[in-house]
Amino acid sequence: MKIAEIKELSTKELIERVDAEVAAYDQKRINHTITPVDNPAQIKQQRRTIARMKSELRYRELNNK
Q: Which residues cross the membrane (predicted)?
């Protein structure tokens, strides 16, 4: 997910999306330990997407106060 797409989401949608992405990331990591994923770079990409979303949430939190 691109930064521009993240900024277009409302705060509520962004929070829900972060929760969903974290759950999917955890599941993918567990599955990877059991049976290796075809492309382990997907795990890295998903982790970075979560970080981008959390950064945007923190930015919004600091600017609203």
A: none
**Could you tell me the pTM of the whole model?**
0.90
Tokens 């521009």 sit on residue? 4
Instruction: Please report the domains of the chain, with CATH numbers, ordered by start residue.
Output: 3-64 (1.10.287)
Q: What are phi and psi of 36, to 5 degrees?
A: -55, 140
**Residues above pLDDT 70, as percent of the chain:** 98
